[in-house]
Amino acid sequence: MTSRILERQVKDSIELEIQELAAEYAEDGMPTLKREIADKEKIVTDRVQEYGVIDNNGHLVAGDIGNLKPLEGWQKVPIPFEKRKFDRENDDYLNVKVVMLTEQRWLGVGYTANYIEDALDAIVSAFSWGLLLVLMLGGAGGLYVTRSFLKKIEAITNSTHAIIAGDIRHRLSVSKTRDELDDLAILLNRMLDKICKLIENVQQVSNDIAHDLRTPISHLKFRLEDALHKNLTPEQYKNNIGGMVHEVDTILNTFSALLRIAQIESGSRRSGFTSVNLSERILAVAEALEPVAEEKSKRLICSVDSNIFLSGDKELLTQLAYNLIENALVHTQEHAQINVELKKTEQKVQFIVFDNGLGIPQEQQEKIFQRFYRVEGGRTTPGNGLGLSIVSAIADLHSARIKLSDNKPGLKIAVQFK
Questions:
Q1: What are the residues facing 275 on neighbouring strands?
Q2: What is the pLDDT at residue 382?
Q3: I need a labelling partner for 250 at 20 to 30 A (CA). Which of 131, 156, 200, 211 fits?
Q4: Are 163 and 189 within 8 A, CB to CB?
Q5: Residue 398, SS3?
């Protein structure tokens, strides 16, 4: 393509030159044409174009090209060795454009045949050096990238071996470059953080189960020992057995709550999601707990927007509302006021339960959703500390976010559904 473009440019230049020289000859005659050709040959020392004027007998009248044929058109004209201008081995012929000035005169303007080849050689040479430079720089860059990549892979491998060996708190290093491997390391570190948290939760749950079940099991043992070693009346035996049944129910309720949390966290209930009228569910729960509030001398006030629907599990959403409202009723003082709100704003649904009770210290607010966790003083009230853990599991299943805040006085719990 370059060859064709250069050849076209040179030929266009020669045709323009011939037109100008022919015009000067027609206007001022042969002497002026000779002077013009001589001037051009003097000015351009390493010129591309060559000139020649011959008569019908082939005699050279002006210029250097004397072996032209008196025919119009392009011609290939050999250059005698002794007349070569540029001392280059391959300049052995010219491409010449010949036009007739008169019946006795012929003008030829040509260019060295290897001019284009020389230009192409220069281009090839430039590209060759460029390619060599690219290969060198690319090789060096590739070596650097490869060594950096392998170094990071080695670091990940070493960290993995350390974690397998038991150092679960070890984390992968992250460089400042933040490339793809660093992004992978960040994700792996987040995964390890989650695993550590789950392991800690399992350990904490094990400790809490042992702690919370110790009391009812101890009571059960004492009652069994009383029944075994003491001479009791039928009425006393009956009371003892009733107490044993109560302690067993406490233990079973605890395990049932744990199994329910596990079932919710497994996500198996998500496949059965349907459109649920959350307004209807919350009002039904509030109506069911109204007598409990009155019995405890507390006020339960509802402000629920009608016909708010969302996709979810009807039973679990009902339990979420029940646990939150019941938790407020159980852990507030006499004559407290519990407010229940449900509203939809900006494509988000918010379910809020707040009271004017004693509230929860800021440092304990995030802990109340842990299994078996109970605020200081809360262990005197009935329950196993799993109610809010179930709420948290249900919220996670429905991709909802729980936010706790100080109601001044009291506690506000907001569940925000997407």
A1: 311
A2: 57
A3: 200
A4: no
A5: coil
Q: Give domain 2-113's CATH number out of 2.40.160, 3.30.450, 3.40.50, 3.40.1000.
A: 3.30.450
Residue 82 per-residue DSSP state: G
List C-alpha distances in Å: 195 to 210, 294, 356: 23, 45, 38
Q: Which residues of 205-221 are buried (b: 16+ CB within 10 A; e: fewer)?
A: beebbeebbeebeeebe
The reply to whether omega before 216 is within 30° of 0 (cis) is no
| Residue 157: strand, helix, or coil | helix
Edge-first strand listing for the sheet containing 73-78: 60-63, 49-55, 105-112, 93-100, 73-78
Looking at 3.20.20.60, 3.30.565.10, 3.90.1720.10, 3.60.150.10, the CATH number of the domain 270-417 comes to 3.30.565.10
Confirm if 254 and 210 have CB atoms less than 8 A apart. Answer: no
pLDDT in tens, 41-91: 776 555 567 888 888 888 888 888 878 888 888 888 887 655 555 444 455
Rounded Cα gap, residues 278 and 353, in angstroms? 14
Which DSSP category does 271 fall into?
Answer: G
Take residue 267 and report the two structure tokens written for it. 């996500």
Domain boundaries, the chain: 2-113, 115-170, 193-265, 270-417
pLDDT tens string 232-284: 788 888 888 888 888 888 788 777 777 777 777 777 777 778 899 999 999 99
Tokens 């918010």 -> residue: 350
Class of domain 193-265: mainly alpha
| Distance from C-alpha of 387 to C-alpha of 371, rounded to nearest angstrom | 8
Task: Report yes or no on whether pTM surpasses 0.70.
Answer: no
Q: How far apart are CA 184 and CA 172, in angstroms?
A: 10
Buried b (16+ CB within 10 A) or exposed e, 331-364: bbeeebbbbbbbebeeeebbbbbbbbbebbeeee
Q: Is the pLDDT of residue 101 over 50?
A: yes
Choose among 47, 150, 39: nearest CA to 91.
47
Q: Are 310 and 276 in contact (CB under 8 A)?
A: yes
